Amino acid sequence: MALQLAPLAALAFTARLAAPLAPRSRVLLSADPPADPSAVPADVVQLWSEQWWPLLFSASASKTAPTPLHVLGAPLVVWWDAPRARWRCLLDRCPHRLAKLSQGRVDARGRLECAYHGWAFEGGGGACEALPQRGAPCGRALALPVVEAQGLVWAWGGALFGGAEARGGPLTVAEASDPRFSVADYWRECAVDATLAAENFLDPSHVYFAHHRTIARREHARAVPLRLSSPLRRDGFSLRSAQPQEWPGTATFHAPMLAVVSTRRAGSYNTTLVNYCVPTLPGRCRQMVRICFETARMPPPLRQLIGLSSSRRLAWLSHITRAAAVVEDDHGLLHDIEHFYRLAAPPPPASPPGAPSQGAELAPRWEARLQLPTRSDGSFIALRRWVDTYTRGRGVAWSPHTPAAALAAPPPLLAPHALLERFESHAQHCTACRGALATARRVRAAAQVGALLCLAAGAARLAAAAYGAAMLAASLEARLLVGPVPRERRDS
Ligand SMILES: *[C@@H]1O[C@H](CO)[C@@H](O)[C@H](O)[C@H]1NC(C)=O
Ligand code: FES
To answer: What InterPro entries does the record tag this protein with (predicted)?
Structure first.
């Protein structure tokens, strides 16, 4: 995971970044905009396509129903092929008449059966193995190579661009499979560009304010100057705290999607916060967050408490409290910021049909438009320079399967309450939250009936207890569906 760097280059680079706002060096300007603005340069396409993309956390993914999701603009369907004990992934389009395969079902032989006319596809190569209309089986769905690693299901992006054979391994993080650490996972579909999610995650100084009363306190705010500890490269960059006594951390970007923030303390437990920022559609991403605490070095009550809150059984509880709240704290801010980033952007170029396309520049002339006087913005500056240098400022190279409408227009500006929505963006495809939702609904219905029966029988106390239980279940149900508004940080 550690970025390798030539010592001399690193030295020169660190010296240069002592003043992060100094004029950009030549290496950072190496990329000129392409002559034909609709043609994405091959190296940019390769950067996004030739990757293993995380799709799902396997522990909270359905093993009975197919799950629809997007990666790089392409609609995909993922399912569990029980007879072969493997996750499978196809383009979510039936080759027969383009129905969504994710509306179908998984048959007893582990194949995905289309809901429209019942063609059944095996997951290995996408071949159609059953055709109820009795023609010779023909047609093949587009299949993506899939691996499971570190509790994540990954698919090879190259297949979406009609190219590159799968190679290399997924971008895993050592702490996530280190027995000294406990790991809690959360994911959420967000109305934010993936690069904004990454710039936010790598920025320690927003935590005290944006997450006031969620995981931090604004009274504890301090300067967190950051210094590049490796040169900006195509495969990412790493920054470390310039004042480790204040904040002993590092912020690392493993291009093009993995943001990692680690704190290492000699006298206390270490933490590693991981965020896979997966581009789903233009202006949208899936944040797949892993919180790794070194529980082995925690004192006893805390160790058990953190261990318990990371347990699979209680995943839904963290998904409706801290984990969801932290993402929601940022969501409204980032969604709005992105809209203003784009304001100064030229309209996206029309692209030839079938060609991989891309939107307008995401944050044009950001260096001139933003005030960045302190080194606490070091990770933001590094991330935006990485986007400028290695993607020509365009960010994601969207696959040819991206809906044309999503490429043509900038994403709409959503109302704040829409960004707190938790069912479409998470619970419906999280087995833990779906289970909790079904239980909460059953408990509420039963407690309501119980309260009425007790009331009719004259047992007022029992009726009150049942009514209390119904209210509790109803509030749980509400939290599984939508985040609280207004945010707590406003109150004090
Ligand atoms: C935690 O951080 C300390 C201090 O940097 C380091 O010596 C130790 O190896 C780390 N432990 C783990 C499990 O990563
Ligand atoms: S569209 Fe899938 S079987 Fe007809």
So the answer is: Cholesterol_7-desaturase, PaO, Rieske_2Fe-2S, Rieske_2Fe-2S_sf
